[in-house]
Design a protein that fits this description.
The structure is a single chain. This protein is an alpha+beta fold and about 300 residues long. It is built from 9 helices and 10 strands. Strands 1-2-3-5-4 form a 5-stranded antiparallel β-sheet, with helices on one face. It has a 3-stranded antiparallel β-sheet with strand order 6-8-9, covered by helices on one side. A two-stranded antiparallel sheet has the order 7-10. A hairpin with a 7-residue loop joins strand 8 and strand 9. The radius of gyration is 20 Å and the shape is globular.
């Protein structure tokens, strides 16, 4: 949750920015979209203000903002060219975009997401960027799991983690240091802008950087491998990425040699989060959480170098 005074002051910042953009603002209710330790987001009409995680590096965030501003057909461009300071947090302001409707899975924009990723991966970074933060987020999930109270599901998750290569565990540089990556791709990272029905754009630059482009395909690949994403939806996503010339996988043939390690890592990360949430809430794992933990258990019996994909 936010620190004392941060949420009302962030709301005031969003409101002031909205009024600067639209003096005749209808001034509806300001909405808190997200309130987590790694980011608090509020909306006032057509403007969104985000307080980034306390550990956010200002130089890295500035480079990511420059990148988003330079690629407005791929990434939602910020309203503020540099982060602002509010209490102990860096704050950015953005135009509001219409998000993916979670209650209409049949309308999920898999093709749009894949095409945006392919174009992003083919675009040279417009400014020097830090490494893509995907592996670091996976490491943080494992750290939280180790710090949580004991749980029987933790063992297969931690074992699967030890089988991953050092770069995927954020213990060594990534094997690709030039490709522009989003770093945390899922359908919640797309919005239509201008709202309500403009083109789809990618949002959330916090993990963006240079690295292994297959990481951006890893979450849907992991869902598919765990049986959580139907094969036809996975095929739509993969085929659209290939059609758009995405470099993360071969244009034809088996994509799993490129996807296996990132997909395994995202599965471990997801399972670690699931176990921590269950421990915190003192409840059993639900069906989806059990699926990702079971996938970690299967991965533990088939090391990555021996499998064309993990025990799908």
């Amino acid at each position: 949750m936010t620190a004392h005074h941060l949420l009302p002051d962030l709301t005031a910042r969003a409101t002031a920015t909205a009024h600067t953009r639209t003096p005749a603002c209808p001034c509806g209710t300001t909405t808190t979209l997200t309130d987590r330790p790694d980011g608090t987001v509020v909306r006032h009409e057509s403007t969104v203000a985000k307080a980034h995680a306390p550990s956010t590096d200002p130089t890295d965030l500035a480079a990511r903002l420059t990148t988003a501003a330079s690629l407005p057909t791929l990434l939602l461009p910020p309203l503020t060219p540099a982060p602002l300071h509010l209490h102990d947090r860096l704050v950015t302001c953005w135009p509001y975009g219409t998000p993916v409707d979670p209650d209409d899975p049949d309308a999920a924009p898999w093709e749009a997401a894949a095409t945006l990723l392919a174009r992003l991966h083919r675009t040279p970074p417009p400014t020097p960027l830090p490494p893509m933060r995907g592996p670091l987020k996976a490491l943080r999930a494992i750290t939280r799991l180790r710090e949580a109270a004991p749980h029987p599901a933790a063992a297969p998750v931690l074992h699967a983690w030890t089988l991953l290569p050092a770069w995927a565990r954020a213990e060594a540089p990534q094997p690709d240091t030039t490709t522009l990556c989003h770093g945390d791709l899922h359908l919640g990272q797309l919005v239509r802008h201008p709202a309500p029905d403009g083109p789809w754009l990618l949002i959330d630059v916090d993990d963006m950087g240079v690295g292994v482009p297959a990481w951006d395909l890893a979450r849907p690949a992991a869902w598919y491998a765990c049986g959580l994403l139907p094969p036809d939806e996975w095929a739509r996503f993969l085929n659209a990425y290939r059609t758009a010339g995405g470099p993360a996988v071969p244009t034809t043939g088996d994509p799993w040699p490129a996807l296996d390690i990132p997909a395994r890592t995202l599965t471990v990360q997801t399972a670690a989060h699931a176990v921590v949430k269950a421990v915190t809430a003192d409840r059993p794992l639900d069906e989806v959480e059990l699926a990702v933990v079971d996938a970690c258990d299967r991965m533990g019996s088939v090391p990555p170098e021996l499998a064309p994909g993990f025990a799908k």
